[in-house]
Amino acid sequence: MLSRTLGVLLVCLGLFVSGCSAGTDTSQAGSSAPPEASAPAWAAGMETVREADLPAEARSTLRLIDAGCPFPYEKDGTVFGNFEGELPKERRGYYHEYTVRTPGERDRGARRIVTGDGGETYYTDDHYESFKAVLR
Questions:
Q1: What is the pLDDT of residues 6-38, one digit of tens each?
Q2: Which of 1-10, 13-22, 50-59 has the highest mean pLDDT?
Q3: Domains of the chain by range and CATH?
């Protein structure tokens, strides 16, 4: 049991380290993906961005979320309240937020990934003022 847990932690650490060293693309995810028939219903009416077009740090955060790894920031995985009302209204606890590292920032910065219990993924680079639906 201990060796399995240690193995899982090592894999998570490897994913985290490889994601952090994958590059320092500081470009904004400003280009919206064209409307596609394959866009999920929850993305209807929202700006979208393909996962591949997100900054490298956001893609790294998505890999950590997918792996269920320990996260670098204490608030990662906590409930996102959607107080700004930019995402579809859902019950409290439906959304969770994760920090996207911003090179040069000493704190958490403004970039986040927010996930919904229904599999939705959103990206913001302006601290919740606007969101793009992430097409994965």
A1: 344 444 444 444 444 344 344 444 445 454 547
A2: 50-59
A3: 50-134 (3.10.450.30)
97, 105, 120, 129: the active-site residue: 97
Check 36, 90, 127, 129 and give the catalytic one: 127
- 96 in active site: no
User: What is the pTM assigned to this prediction?
Assistant: 0.74
Annotated catalytic, 97?
A: yes
Q: How far from 94 is each of 30, 77, 85, CA to CA, in Å?
A: 26, 11, 13
Residue whose tokens read 């320990």: 70
By DSSP bridging, strand 121-124 and strand 95-99 are: unpaired
